[in-house]
Design brief:
Blueprint lengths: L6 H9 L6 E2 L5 E2 L22 H6 L1 E3 L5 H21 L2 H6 L13 H31 L1 H22 L2 H5 L3 H29 L7 E4 L5 E4 L1 H20 L1 H11 L2 H21 L5 E2 L6 H14 L9 H6 L13 H17 L2 H9 L4 H7 L14 H23 L6 H28 L31 H13 L1 H10 L6 H22 L8 H23 L6 H5 L9 E2 L5 H11 L5
Parallel strand pairs: 3-5
Antiparallel strand pairs: 1-2, 4-5, 6-7
Helix pairs in contact: 3-8, 3-9, 3-10, 3-11, 5-6, 5-8, 5-21, 6-8, 6-11, 8-21, 9-17, 9-20, 10-11, 14-21, 15-21, 15-22, 17-19, 18-19, 18-20, 18-22, 20-21
Length: about 600
């Protein structure tokens, strides 16, 4: 059976039965009088009314105003990402190079060891969001999960700072302290990452498009989906403003010491934690729903045992068709079943992302080492990675205000699947360019394919000079990866939020983040190839893999562009977020009471 919802199937099985008597997940009644209220007042909908189907086709869609609480969440994420990238930016040098050498270092594990350990850290940081999501969706809610995770994060920051002091490095504490800090920080960031992304989108509560007349006289549709896209654009821009911290920490690493490079992010995280606490009364979130994740798996199990028929999990089906011996007491409504179906669409779309994340991760380790093989002219080799966030900060407004609206006017709508496809293509281009740079390094002296490892490169001080290529030539690779993130990574966050059930936003977001962990696992498997002269073929292979993955992705999933709007309509029938103070344990107890009545 085909489980992709067409617009007709959606309205027949999910929307129309709810128009007269809709019960939300908490059991409340939400009366809905018409699927399109505006149609009753004439062909031209007044301002504030829901647009007709004809107006949806003809009028331009614009973003709504964003609530201030969303910007507060942005500040929290900026501080957390400032900390994460400020810490991880110096990791490659900290691990790869020896203490007291020509390049900053502490542990001396070499490029392969450093790449493997940084890939492990990234893998760990993107596995733990699943745990954070379960805690949030079932027990604590987003705010309190973020709060307690932040406390854990700060403990990890403190461990890293203390073990990076010169006296600790000289006494061999650097490696043990680093591994301990990575584990603790990973636990903290997991609880934050899976919850802060859906929390920011939940600050915007409107789920129904409406007509608005601009000062110019143009009638437009204020569209929730377009608003969510803008929210994640701004959110991702804040992430990358925070990631510029590596500029400061790499300079501190080079001129003061690693202890100073790790102290600065620690202090910034404390500021973010203060904003989190101070803004508590401003945030809105959906309350935890008890065993909501097992409930979703029960829906899928019923569908599987009925030959893939998700309608069998709906209450009305159980009432009408189930035999008395197999009848189940259903504790969910039809909307929840449709949401689970929609979430499965998102999960299928996520399958190809690990290939993309392998490409993305190159700038966190191998690109830094590649820069070290070139003439730096006073530029720290790990400073070049900041071209990536600079590109993102510049081009997010360009895409949001000019590229996407301009293409829409020309009839080319940048639906999510289309954006992700182009993200893969740009990622493949970045790897192809990196392969070209590596080829140029190998063609240049003095050591050619064995960079900084031949007598011709030996300097009087005992160190080795890199090959004769200017490091600036590496910048376009970072630019291409930055552009690819705007199309693929931001859209992935948006897709995870808009396609997840209202009560499982954190869990589905964590599954998207988990694809990064799988990408890191692939990177760990590839780390033995991160040596001269294999680097050229590694970059070439990644370019081909990302290109092929993008093509297959488009062939399989481009059809979802046609049902994008109908899938998003489900949000109109879900429970709305509440202020943190009102999302109390009472909501959870009601959910637990409902769950206890389920029997197979």
């Amino acid at each position: 059976m085909d489980h992709e919802s067409t617009a007709a199937e959606f309205h027949a099985t999910a929307v129309e039965p709810r128009l007269h008597d809709h019960k939300d997940m908490a059991g409340g009644i939400e009366p809905v009088t018409s699927a399109h209220p505006s149609e009753a007042v004439g062909s031209v909908t007044p301002d504030g009314g829901e647009p007709t189907d004809e107006e949806k086709q003809k009028l331009r869609k614009v973003s709504d105003k964003l609530p201030w609480s969303a910007f507060l969440v942005c500040v929290i994420e900026l501080c957390e990402r400032f900390t994460y990238y400020g810490l991880s930016g110096p990791f490659q040098n900290y691990i790869e190079n020896s203490y007291g050498g020509s390049l900053p270092g502490a542990i001396g594990m070499g490029q392969t060891g450093a790449t493997g350990l940084t890939d492990f850290f990234q893998f760990w940081c993107y596995v733990t969001p699943v745990l954070g999501a379960v805690i949030s969706d079932q027990y604590l809610g987003k705010y309190w999960t973020i709060f307690y995770s932040a406390l854990i994060y700060m403990v990890g920051n403190l461990i890293l700072f203390l073990t990076s002091l010169p006296v600790a490095i000289e006494n061999g504490a650097a490696l043990g302290g680093l591994i301990a800090a990575m584990i603790v920080i990973g636990l903290g960031t997991g609880g934050i990452k899976s919850n802060v992304s859906p929390l920011i989108a939940e600050q915007y509560e409107n789920t129904t498009p409406f007509i608005k007349t601009l000062k110019s006289g143009e009638r437009v549709i204020v569209d929730p989906s377009t608003t969510i896209t803008r929210i994640y654009m701004i959110f991702y821009m804040m992430i990358n403003i925070g990631s510029l911290s590596s500029i400061a920490t790499t300079e501190l690493e080079a001129h003061v010491g690693f202890w100073a490079a790790y102290l600065l992010p620690f202090l910034m995280f404390i500021i973010g934690f203060a904003v989190l606490v101070a803004g508590k009364s401003k945030y809105k979130m959906r309350p935890p729903q008890g065993s909501i994740i097992p409930k979703a798996f029960k829906v899928m199990w019923i569908a599987i045992t009925n030959k893939g028929n998700f309608n069998a999990a709906k209450p009305e089906y159980q009432e009408e068709f189930s035999s008395s011996g197999r009848k189940r007491n259903i504790t969910w409504d039809s909307i929840f079943v449709e949401e689970v179906k929609r979430a499965l669409v998102a999960c299928k779309v996520f399958i190809f992302f690990p290939v993309y994340w392998v490409v993305y991760s190159q700038m966190l380790n191998n690109f830094i080492s590649q820069a070290g093989q070139m003439q730096l002219h006073g530029i720290p080799n790990d400073l070049m990675q900041n071209w990536d966030p600079i590109t993102i900060i510049i081009f997010i407004p360009v895409c949001d205000y000019f590229l996407y609206p301009g293409l829409a006017k020309l009839g080319f709508k940048m639906y999510p699947i289309t954006r992700i496809f182009w993200g893969f293509m740009l990622g493949a281009g970045a790897m192809a360019y990196a392969a070209g740079v590596q080829k140029l390094i190998y063609k240049s002296g003095p050591c050619y394919e064995q960079v900084a490892a031949c007598p011709a490169a030996l300097l009087p001080d005992g160190s080795y000079s890199p090959n004769n290529v200017h490091v600036a030539i590496q910048a376009p690779a970072y630019l291409l990866i930055g552009l690819s993130e705007i199309f693929a990574s931001i859209t992935g966050l948006e897709y995870a939020f808009t396609k997840a059930p209202a009560s499982m936003k954190s869990f589905i977001m964590s599954l998207f983040l988990l694809t990064t962990a799988f990408g890191s696992a692939l990177s760990i498997a590839l780390s033995p190839t991160a040596v001269d002269p294999k680097l050229l073929w590694m970059y070439t292979g990644l370019a081909v893999a990302c290109f092929v993955a993008g093509i297959i992705f488009w062939l399989l999933y481009s059809r979802y562009n046609k049902t994008e709007e109908s899938m998003n309509e489900l949000e109109k029938y879900t429970e709305k977020p509440k202020p943190v103070g009102e999302a109390t344990a009472h909501d959870l107890e009601k959910s637990k009471s409902a769950n206890s009545s389920y029997r197979a």
